[in-house]
Amino acid sequence: MPPKRKTSGTSRGFTTEPIAPAQRPDDRPVEAAKGRLQTSALLTTAQGVRLPDTDHSLKAGPRGPSLMDDFHLREKITHFDHERIPERVVHARGAAAHGTFTAYGNAASATKAGFLQRGRETPVFVRFSTVLGSRGSADTVRDVRGFAVKFYTDEGNFDLVGNNMPVFFIQDGIKFPDVIHAAKPHPDREIPQAQSAHDTFWDFVSLHTEATHHVMWAMSDRGIPRSFRTMEGFGVHTFRLVSADGETCLVKFHWKPIAGVHSLVWEEAQIAAGVDPDFHRRDLADGIDAGAPFEYELGLQIMPDSVDQTFEGLDLLDPTKIVPEELCEVQLVGKLTLDRNPTNYFAETEQVAFHTGNLVPGIEVTDDPLMQARLFSYLDTQLTRLGGPNFTQLPINCPHAAVNDNLRDGMHQTAVPHGVAPYLPNSLGQEGEPVPAEASEGAFVHVPREVSGPKVRESPASFSDHFSQATLFWASMTEVERSHIIEAFTFELGKCFEQPIRERMLGVLANVDTDLCSAVAKGLGLAAPGGAPTAAAVTSPALSQIITVPGPIAGRVIGVVAADGADLAGINKLRRAVEAQGAVLRLLAPAGGTIKTARSTQTVERTLLTSRSIEYDALVVAAGNPDLKNIKLTVLLGELFRHCKVIGAWGNGDQVLTAAGIDTTAPGILLAESMAKPYTTELFAAIGCHRVWERAELGMAE
């Protein structure tokens, strides 16, 4: 470890000396005029107004909506939105695709939203992203992934802006700048990039225990997804649906990947960040080009719209809580298919502008205080990032519904409005000028709801439970997944320099689970503190990613190792079988060019110099080259074995495995005399389970 950083002034590492020049009136003391930042011992606004609270937005009662007269919320979020130019402050690194959403029609009784009516097909654009890293960071870092879907509906654009985790770090949007400032690289050195394994992040989350549930998700395998294809998506917040007859219900949105939910192992993620930092975006583009679209089903958890907005004792306005699927079934209501890559990255993926306030009739927001702040922040962000208010005229953001908005001028105005009266009412209007729509004409009319309460900066009492669902998540994991969570916490906290932060976070984990805390403490060489974990009365099997029933292998990559003289006929059989499953076969050899036999020739698609385990979901050694030895092949096979991937061989190819030190009797090592249908059936079933976790369990036992 490098020596501990020296700090000046305070233990936080910020100098107490003035650091920003400012104009001063002649009558101000010279010392006070040296600067204006960090000169007050008390927290203030940018105007110097002292603040009593920066953790709670101003609301109409503890459970009420946030209020526009919260000048501190608006100033804090506005400054945060504009602090980086030109990339997004968060979600800067992204990849995207076009596609179509097809509704099944079974949501029609719950909402009048047109795109959810039976058989309706709606064009979509979906952007996946990491949260913390810059545009130049790696894809496979441990992080939350954005899962943002823009529906170009007949009633206007609807944006479902979610993540691959159903909960968030904070309960109130006023703290969003704080958690991101803590998670971003340290401001003095701008390191570490795209990582949470550092002091400021763990300082924040150990002090804000409401983050505990989300941290459990982030330290699990969910933080390093295998592919966007195998990644769940969640709307995070609770929304309100409105039916055609005005009835309402509360809902949580889910995206269920048809390929199943699978992740990388930690070593794979680290290798990919070095050898292929574009791994996820390449996988998305290559999969679509290969004719294997990315597919998901939209699911709804529908709950009564009760006065207290709770369900089975769970506060639906708390974004750090889930509703377990065992308590409320996820009803599948439509299919999302991504099958077309962007034509230009900047024009589409970079310029697309999502906004949680882009709603359509039949879908409304709730008083979730994190959601309330997002309603302001997203629109405000676009003004800086895209240069003004006319970003909706960019083709990727332009709605497919007819527009007549009375908005005028501004930077980058590309339309040419007609008429002299862009206001309502007017007596000078010409034909074609808009008039307000009636509800019967599809106008968005908010469902009337009573709002009352004192202006307070508080949270409801139910928001104070920070540990029970973190315990539920831990209890729902398999032993393999628990070992990964322990390793993740140990790695991340091991990267912190400040001992008090490690100890404080162990105190947090002690309130989640005693075994978890003890294992992490042991890895850090510290004593495990006592805690008061909640006894997990139930578990939620839906939270575990480990499966026993094989899923589809479309989009997966199977490598075949061969050299001159290999069984090319067998390779051709395997290739046909692989492509029939929508997967991809890549021929791997010691050198580029072609592989030849007396009757056939095949092109080498990868060489041992350019290949690592991360690129393949399985690797098979072809018959015909029993003497094939190469140190890079040995490394590759060793990685595949450690990463619990399927390894196979047919004919005398098993001799290559033995020479590379692979135990051919271990689980997931599939051997056959020849390439035939029974072997491909066995191979595809094993790949469909994603990993051979029995090998990991053997390692844990040792």
The CATH homology group name of one domain:
Catalase core domain
Stated plainly, the CATH topology of one domain is called: Catalase HpII,  Chain A, domain 1
**Portion in helices:** 25-40%
Task: From the alpha carbons, calculate the radius of gyration and give it in angstroms.
Answer: 28 Å
Describe the largest sheet: 10 strands, antiparallel
Distance between the termini: 29 Å
DSSP helical segment count: 17
Low-confidence stretches: 1-35
Describe the structure.
This protein has 702 residues and is α+β, with helices and mostly antiparallel strands. Among the domains are: 99-174 and 232-261 and 277-393, Catalase HpII,  Chain A, domain 1; 557-697, Rossmann fold, CATH 3.40.50. It is 25% helix and 17% strand. The strands form five sheets. Strands 2, 3, 4, 5, 6, 7, 8, 9, 12 and 13 form a ten-stranded antiparallel beta sheet that branches. A six-stranded parallel beta sheet has the order 19-16-15-20-21-22, sandwiched between helices. β7 and β8 (248-257) form a beta hairpin. The longest helix is centred in the middle third of the chain and has 17 residues, at 369-385. The chain starts with 58 loop residues before the first strand and ends with a helix. Mean pLDDT is 90; it is low at 1-35.
Secondary-structure map:
Layout: E1 59-60, H1 71-81, E2 94-103, E3 121-130, E4 145-153, E5 156-163, H2 176-183, H3 199-207, H4 212-219, E6 233-234, E7 239-242, E8 248-257, H5 266-275, H6 279-289, E9 294-304, E10 310-311, E11 314-315, E12 331-340, H7 345-350, E13 363-365, H8 369-385, E14 455-456, H9 468-475, H10 479-494, H11 499-509, H12 514-524, E15 557-561, H13 568-580, E16 584-589, E17 594-596, E18 601-603, E19 606-607, E20 618-621, H14 631-642, E21 646-650, H15 654-659, E22 669-672, H16 677-688, H17 693-701
Parallel strand pairs: 15-16, 15-20, 16-19, 20-21, 21-22
Antiparallel strand pairs: 1-14, 2-3, 2-12, 3-4, 4-5, 6-8, 7-8, 7-13, 8-9, 9-12, 10-11, 17-18
Helix pairs in contact: 1-8, 2-3, 3-11, 4-9, 10-12, 11-12
Cofactor: heme
Binding site for heme: 88, 127, 176, 374, 378, 385
GO molecular function: catalase activity; heme binding; metal ion binding
